[in-house]
Design brief:
single chain; 247 residues; alpha+beta; five-stranded antiparallel β-sheet; four-stranded mixed β-sheet
Length: 247
Amino acid sequence: MPTRICLLVSLLIAPLLSAGAETLSLESPGPRVSLLELYTSEGCSSCPPADRWMAKLRDDPRLWREVVPVAFHVDYWDYIGWRDRFASPAYGARQRDYARSGHVRTVYTPGFVLAGKEWRSWFVRPNLKVGEGVEIGKLRLSVDGQQANIAFTPSVSGSGELEVHVTMLGFDLQTEVRSGENGGRTLEHDFVVLGYRSLAMTRRDSTYTAAFSLPDVKVPSERKAIAAWVSLPGDPRPVQVVGGWLN
């Protein structure tokens, strides 16, 4: 290949390689960010309205800065005729952890948990009010390919342990449901948890850190985001949350 052509190809490819190698950096504000969890199922006829309402948060100016929505699809409705492809036993187990700890009254769908507390107002007045968060500390997340690092420095230092929870979120997803309570309907989903993992954090001085591989994604999605939060071991309630678009 002539030298001039080689040079031209190098100039064209270099920006693409540089862009692909960029590390995504996300940072929460200092005040507490609200994690909004929806427990839902494609096998539940009452869930599509909740799914549609959550989808509207894509255009909410508070997204990622004040509220981070995640939709956990539970598997405990699979037996009634339709197997939810987004569901995992781990998601229902998380909802039951909330019930066992007394932060929700019972396990049901659609079920909302806002900042670690049951949020039943959606059923009568779906006006999301996250309020002014108390100063809690900044949560920083960096993603480089399939590897990630997270760091949390609390505003008030303590001696306890923390763990981090990481979710991969999918958008613009559709399912043609062929049986069950939603049989014959095409359901649309956003903020769907497609992968989830949790691990212990290491403390050095006043900062908690963890390095990890991103969770495996069980269903492909062209539009993706990531959400992560820290919590006390054995307590599902989030301490601080960070999230943002991956593409």
